[in-house]
Each structure stands twice: as C-alpha cells, then as structure tokens.
Amino acid sequence: MSYLKGNCKKLKGQVTLPTEIGMDKEIAMLYDKWGCDAVRDCDGTKLPDEIKKLAEKVYSTFFPTRGDQAWATEHKDQAQELYLMSEYNTAAADTLEIDIMAGYFDQQFQIDTVHDPKEWWEVIDRTTGEIIDPSCWEFDKSTGKVIISNTKKYHNYTVGFLVYMVWDPTQMFNHITNNWGDRPHEISSDICHEETRKNMLKYLEDWLNEHPDTDVVRFTTFFYHFTLIYNQLGMPKFFDWFGYGSSISPIAMEKFEEVKGYKLRPEDIIDEGYYNNPFRIPSKHFLDYMDYQQAFVAAAAKECADIAHRHGKEAMMFLGDNWIGTEPFGKHFKKIGLDAVVGSVSYGAQIRMLSEIPGLKYTEARFMPYFFPDVFFEGGDPLKELNFSWLAGRRAIARKPVDRMGYGGYPSLALKFPEFVERVGKICDEFREIYSNIDGDKPYSAPFKVAVLNCWGKLRAWYAGCAGRASGYKAIYSSGQVEESLCGMPFEVEYISFDDIKENGIPEDIGVIINVGAANTAWSGGANWLDETVVSRIREFVHNGGGFIGIGEPTACQHQGKYFQLSDILGVERELGYYLNYPRYGQLSTEEHFIMKDVTTNKISFGEEIPWVYGNGKDEKILSMSGDYVQVAANSYGKGRSAYFSGFEYEPENNRLLLRAIYWVAGKENEMEKWYSSNINTECHAYLSSGKFMVLNNSYESQDTVIYYGDNDSMNIKLEPMECRWFEI
C-alpha cells in the first residue's frame, strides 16, 4: 500500500465563478486563484465584457417567465396564479364577512377578479367540511370581502380563492435580502396562456441572438416557482420547496380535465390549507395533477432546450426557484433533452440529489454560502458555513461525484474575507483531485442494497431534507438526517414506494428496508400500512432473512389494537394512552451488541426523537433507553432482523451506529470491516477498478485511525483536520 501524492495543483477547470460589474481585476484574480474555467451571472448582476473574454465557458441566466417584463406588465391578466385559503373565521350571527386577503402580503398577490368567483372559488364550512352553495355567498370587489349568508353560528368558515402573483417570489426574496430598494417588482407570466408561451419562445430566440458569446443557457428554472407565500408583514408565511401551488390556474384546470377526464376542485390544491405539502400522503387527484403538470412542463421546456441547441448552446437547468414540474427522477424529465443541471448544495444528500440525475452530460453543485449580505457581514463567519458545506458534500462526492462546482452571489462581499477566499481555492483543488482520481470508477459497496421506503419512492430520492437554504423541518428531521448519513456510506441506495411493493414486490437485491418519519406523513406512510399486501410482503421479506430498520414512528397507523403495524418485526410499540393498564417490563440489555460497539457517550443524541416507545417482543434487546422508554432496540424475526431508533441526528457516533445497524440487520456483520476506518470521524472509500482508495477526515481536528483494506490487511494513519488522503492499492 502506498500513499498517492496529489496532483491537484496542476489541475484547473470544473469551477464556475459568479461575476459582478466594475470588478474586472478582482474577478480575474479569483478566476485564476480558484482555477476556474467558467463564469456566470446571477439574479441582479450582469456579465462584464472583459470577464467573458477571460473564461473558457460563459453561463448566462435566462428567466423564461419573468425575463420579458414589458410583456408581463402589458399582460397582467396572464400572470401566474395560485389558490390561497383565507384565515378561519367564526360565524357569530347568520351572516359572516371574510376579508380574504387578511394575513397575506398585498405586494405579492392581487385577487383575481377576471375569472368568475362563483365558478372557480369555494367557501367551506370547516366545522363540517360542507361546501357552501355559491348562491349563499357573494364577493365584493370593492372591499375584497366575501359575505356568507345563512351561516351556522359558531362554525368556522374559509374561502378558497384565486390570486395573481404580482411579484416573483425569487426576485422578492433577493430584493428583501439584499436591500434592493426601489428596484421594480418583477412579474412572472404563465405559459399556459398560448399567447404568453409563443412570446416566451420568441423572447428566447431574440435573447440568444443578443448573446452570441454565451456558451451555456442557464434556465432559472423554467415556468413554475415552488410555493412561497408571504404574510402581511412581508415575511414568509408558507414555504414548500416541493409545492405545486403556484402552477394552478383556471386554464390549467380546464386542460387537466381534458387530459385526465375529470374536474379538479379548488380544495384539491388548497388541501385544507396544507397545500399538498410533502408531509401529506398524496391523494390520487394531486398525483394526477403532478403528472399532468410534469408532462406539460417537459413539453414546453423541450421547446426551450431545442432552441438553445439550434443556436449552438448548451441547455442547463437550475434545480431551484421555478423548478416545479421538472422532477428530475420523474418519467417526463428525460424528454426535455437538457445537457446539465446545477443546484445549490449545503449538505451531502443534495449532492446525491444532483449527481444521481440520469441522462445528462454533467451535473454541477453550487456550494453554500451564497456571497450575500445575510452571511457576509462584519462579524459574520462565512468560513464556518463554507467548511460545513464542503465536508458534508465531500462524503457524497466520494460515492457519486457531481462533475463541476461553483458559488453564487457577489464576489465583492467574499473579498472582504481573505481566509474565506483562500479556503475556497483549496476546496476547488481538492474537488478536482477527488474527481480526477475517481475517474468514473464506482466505489466499493456492500454486497446488498439499502432501500428507503416512503410514499414518494424514486420520484423524490434524496429530497427529504430539502427546505429553503437547507433549513430542516422538525417533523421530517430524522428523515433528512438519515439521508445525510446514507449519502456517504458504502451502500447502493434505492428509493421505493408502497405502490412499488404492491405492484412489483421487493427486489431480490434489497437487503435492508428503512422506514423513517413522523406518523401519518408521506415519509413514514400513514394509512399505507393498512394495506395487507404491503405488510404481508415486508413480513415475508424479513422472515426469510431480510433486514428492517424503523426510525421515529415507522409503520405507524392506529389499527386493530396496534400503532406500529409492524411492531412484531420491530419488537417495540408506542404508547398512545390506550394500553396504560398493561405493565411494562422492558429492561436495558447488559450484553455487548454489535450495533453499539462504537458508542462511547453516556447519552446518545437522537435529535427530534419519539418518546413513549416500549419493548414488546419476545426476542428484542433494548440497547439504549431514555428514562423508561426505548431509544435503540434490536429484534429477531424468523431468519431476519430489525433495529429501531427513536430518532436520528447525523453526527459521527450516530453515523457509525446506523452503519452497524444496517450490517447487523442484513446479517452481514462480517462484511463491515472491508475498506473501513475504525475512527468514527473518518471514512474510507475504495475504487477497486482503478486501484485507489481515499480516507476522509470529516472533523476539524487531527484524527488517528486504523484502515482495514483487502481481506485481512490493516494500517494505522494520522490525518490532519479536514484532510483527504489518497492511496494506491
């Protein structure tokens, strides 16, 4: 075994630099220092002519739905729309007046008075769920109020109503974040209007003729923004990076009916005010709408990509902003014919979300932080966020690398932090070294696959932790953290849905199934656990030797005296107050267990963990407890095994805990110490075809570790803080 000295300093390219007007010398310096080969503009900036000449590749941003503001201003009736739900209002008399815009930002929305409210709106008695007949309510345009007659006293009522989106959410966010002052508010037009669609395509043709030095058209993104709703104070009220709410309109609903054969209700989109967020178990109507919109968007996006190609340009999509309808793992995405996808990256799972997209020439990660004033301010610490983002992303790159990297924002802000600038240069070199050494080789993986089971399946692989700028949702905390752990582990990971199991069974190469999330959400499954085919096939899978790991509230849905429907497999159940009369006798196991061997702390942190879980199996072993309740349990079921965690938080000790649990439930403990690092702060990744392996130090301190390689060989090494070291086999 020999140390492979890096040649990263000789490598250049694969890095995209954001630019800024009036900083030609500074941009040229960063371009050389970071070894860039491409430059790009971003929202609110333009590419300087001198910098265009410097770069091998020029990325230019094209906004399909808000690029032509002259058109948008002249055709406000073709602006994008969405359904909003009014606040709950209680009737204290026979008549109730509802100010439908109360609680919403009037600079973002205007009530749609073009389309007949009686046809397109809904008033609902939220106490009973009854739809109120349109003859019993009126809309007063002058006041913006809906007046409901013959109300039932002390019932709650809401109005589902249409609004035009008169300020694009991304431009609004950037405007507020960067203090853009009096800059005009931009409107996004809706291509479901044929007139707007034709204008958008002509505008793209004209734009391409005006940008002959552009090599890559960076579509940001295409047509429909994820759902971002602001309140009356101009602050976020509802945020859903998955949301399809901003893609709805009367025309879309009419076209949907033509394609799918039935009519949508406003409530199919409003969804009791949940707006079909990703925690909701998707209804058939919403899944049909997603499929319709994805097909519609793909067809229109293909027209854009084809035009770019005719002009000799590459077509790149930004996986963010107006990405709705372009689900990269959906069945329609490949029809677009894109060359590349770029996305923002704060953590490792987002790398896999990009790098796993099929059918592209290349993928690119824009690492955090953005060079924006919310991070780059006097007394701020952008270097901390930079290192965090890189260390998290590097683990995933080791398993499946993106092809390029870059940053976004204003370089003038970054230059105020010299240590940050130096560190970015080293990260760029390290990225190129890793990519060059991997050279397309697949990393060593365990002899079985790991499947993550939820309602979304492959459609939203590696998406669970996605929220704005990587801020997590508490109810899905464990799901995102498990993905973050898995993204750098030596496993091939597949995502499967309940429908997959019902229609196709469980693939033979799956060794372990993981179900994680809060009860009654799309991530854990909710009522899907009442399907006899699903539970029977999973029981058969485990009984015959498969592994099952449940985290949080796995298989949870109250039914037939059980809350965890696979409590027999898990060996644990959760108390809801129905079985308090039954004594509990669960005790912490005193035997050493394979899963717990690397646990050194007295108290394991599981983040947003679930309380009141107790052991109920004959063969379960309780490996960790919090008070009287289970945190970690292991169980045998036929020839198979299971493990349960009350929650999960990605950190070194828990990462190793999950790794051991996966190997144990798969019955492959003897396979774990192959291309393996003993220190929990370090990881080993081997590329056997190319005869190389690397060892990563994922911490900010020096680490000593034992590396197990080959069949029975090992060696001791010492790694510097954050070091990545390569070896030849």
UniProtKB/TrEMBL annotation:
> In what residue span(s) does the Lacto-N-biose phosphorylase central domain sit?
449-669
Q: Where is the Lacto-N-biose phosphorylase-like N-terminal TIM barrel domain?
A: 13-445
| InterPro entries linked to this entry | Class_I_gatase-like, Glyco_hydro_b, Ig-like_fold, Lact_bio_phlase-like_N, Lacto-N-biose_phosphorylase, LBP_C, LBP_M
EC number of this enzyme: 2.4.1.211
Query: Per its record, what are the GO molecular function terms?
Result: 1,3-beta-galactosyl-N-acetylhexosamine phosphorylase activity
Q: What class of enzyme is it?
A: transferase
Enumerate the Gene3D superfamilies for this protein: 3.40.50.880, Glycosidases, Golgi alpha-mannosidase II, Immunoglobulins
**Entry keyword Transferase:** yes
Query: Which parts of the sequence belong to the Lacto-N-biose phosphorylase C-terminal domain?
Result: 675-727
Any Pfam family: LBP_M
The coiled-coil regions, if any, are none
Keywords of this protein's UniProt record, alphabetized? Glycosyltransferase, Transferase
Establish whether keyword Glycosyltransferase is in the entry.
yes
Name this polypeptide is given: 1,3-beta-galactosyl-N-acetylhexosamine phosphorylase
Q: Which organism is it from?
A: Clostridium rhizosphaerae
Tell me the organism's taxonomic lineage. Bacteria, Bacillati, Bacillota, Clostridia, Eubacteriales
